[in-house]
Design brief:
The complex is a heterodimer of chains A (122) and B (110).
Chain A lengths: L2 E5 L2 E3 L5 E8 L8 E6 L5 E7 L6 E3 L7 E6 L4 E6 L8 E9 L7 E5 L3 E5 L2
Parallel strand pairs in A: 2-11
Antiparallel strand pairs in A: 1-3, 3-8, 4-5, 4-9, 5-6, 7-8, 9-10, 9-11
Chain B lengths: L8 E4 L5 E6 L11 E5 L6 E4 L13 E6 L2 E6 L8 E9 L4 E4 L3 E5 L1
Parallel strand pairs in B: 1-9
Antiparallel strand pairs in B: 2-6, 3-4, 3-7, 5-6, 7-8, 7-9
Classes of the chains: A mainly beta (122), B mainly beta (110).
Chain lengths: 122, 110
């Protein structure tokens, strides 16, 4: 089965750091762009970051630039999101998703993980 | 903040047709394809429509998408109780250099 499983969420103090992981299985991970999307409590979806198959291109939403870093390890079929200088407004469920169909900006997110909750609070 | 605008809610009785609009600009919908996602309560989003009007395998043909200029629409025909969910449009934005989601529409089956 094609599957994405996130891990690494939890409670962290403002200004702290956290690393999220996303384990992929059932497909050739190295062939796809990958993305992180988050959803604050009771809020809508917000795209966070995406990364090209070989990691050579990365894009971020303005609100996390300079604080979050997306990366991947194709040998381990894993996607990561390193989050630092965390703020209360970063509190959300974080989903990883596979991008498909067009290999870039016209992609859709066709496979989603179940999400991992990140809570930033003192 | 979302740059794609959707109505906050839509509703209909079983069997009716419901349409959800998604309004953007020349830097997103006007120049890139639109995708639609359905999020059932307490679950991860699911891809419903890609490339403006294409249905992934397994999505019923009751769901259809269209795009014109800087706006897009999702139509649900033959509304069913299991269609109660939040629906989001999304597209790449050339000015922001990133994907943007719509504000989301909650569909209620009366």
């Amino acid at each position: 089965d094609v599957q994405l499983v996130e891990s690494g969420g939890g409670l962290v103090q403002p200004g702290g750091s956290l690393r999220l992981s996303c384990a992929a299985s059932g497909f050739t991970f190295s062939s796809y762009w990958m993305t992180w999307v988050r959803q604050g409590p009771g809020k809508g979806l917000e795209w966070v970051a995406c990364i090209k198959q070989d990691g050579s291109q990365k894009y971020y939403v303005d609100s996390v630039k300079g604080r979050f870093t997306i990366s991947r390890d194709n040998a381990k079929n894993s996607l990561y999101l390193q989050m630092s200088s965390l703020r209360a407004e970063d509190t959300a469920v974080y989903y990883c998703a596979r991008q498909a169909y067009y290999d870039g900006r016209d992609d859709a997110f066709d496979i989603w993980g179940q999400g991992t909750m990140v809570t930033v609070s003192s | 903040q979302s740059v794609l605008t959707q109505p906050p809610s839509a509703s209909g009785t079983p069997g009716q047709r419901v349409t959800i609009s998604c309004s953007g600009s020349s830097s997103n919908i006007g120049s890139n394809t639109v995708n639609w996602y359905q999020q059932l309560p307490g679950t991860a989003p699911k891809l419903l429509i890609y490339s403006n009007n294409q249905r992934p395998s397994g999505v019923p043909d009751r769901f259809s998408g269209s795009k014109s200029g800087t706006s897009a629409s999702l139509a649900i025909s033959g509304l069913q109780s299991e269609d109660e969910a939040d629906f989001y449009c999304a597209a790449w934005d050339d000015s922001l250099d990133g994907f943007v989601f719509g504000t989301g529409t909650k569909v209620t089956v009366l």
